[in-house]
């Protein structure tokens, strides 16, 4: 069985652009979110990670699944996969980078080559759904 990194991500699209984040010292952008801690649900992981990374509070009653996506993990050895459960949700507060996040950027479909392989699959899905331009 292939090793799999289990992640949860927040899909936040505004006017055809997806919110992306870049960690300090990295070049690739990713969809905000992160790895679950032992015993955490997807919802708990999403709420915790987004507050840690983006300084905003997810409104739990608005969380909605958009799908789960899997691909080769960026920067990991061949065969290490990442599985990303993706959710939309409303939030309170002002978006600003925190923790290991150096930059936030609104990404369009033309930025697909600037993100990880699993994010590229998500970009394609959002583009097919006419959400990402």
UniProtKB/TrEMBL annotation:
Going by the entry's taxonomy, the superkingdom of the source organism is recorded as: Bacteria
Coiled coil ranges (UniProt) are none
Q: Which UniProt keywords apply?
A: Hydrolase
Q: Which InterPro entries match?
A: NUDIX_hydrolase-like_dom_sf, NUDIX_hydrolase_dom
Annotated signal sequence range: none
The cofactors it requires, by name, are:
Mg(2+)
- Asked whether the keyword Hydrolase is assigned, the reply is yes
| Hydrolase keyword on record | yes
Under the heading PANTHER family, the entry gives: GDP-MANNOSE MANNOSYL HYDROLASE, MUTT_NUDIX FAMILY PROTEIN
Protein name, UniProt field: NUDIX domain-containing protein
**The species this protein was found in:** Paenibacillus vulneris
The top of its lineage is: Bacteria, Bacillati, Bacillota, Bacilli, Bacillales
């Amino acid at each position: 069985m292939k090793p799999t990194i289990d992640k949860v991500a927040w899909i936040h699209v505004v006017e055809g652009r997806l919110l992306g984040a870049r960690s300090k010292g990295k070049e690739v952008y990713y969809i905000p979110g992160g790895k679950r801690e032992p015993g955490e649900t997807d919802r708990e992981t999403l709420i915790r990670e987004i507050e840690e990374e983006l300084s905003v509070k997810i409104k739990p009653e608005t969380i909605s699944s958009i799908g789960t996506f899997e691909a080769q993990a960026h920067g990991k050895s061949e065969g290490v996969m990442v599985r990303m459960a993706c959710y939309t949700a409303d939030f309170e507060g002002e978006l600003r980078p925190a923790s290991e996040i150096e930059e936030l950027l609104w990404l369009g479909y033309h930025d697909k080559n600037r993100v990880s392989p699993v994010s590229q699959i998500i970009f394609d899905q959002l583009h097919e759904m006419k959400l990402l331009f």
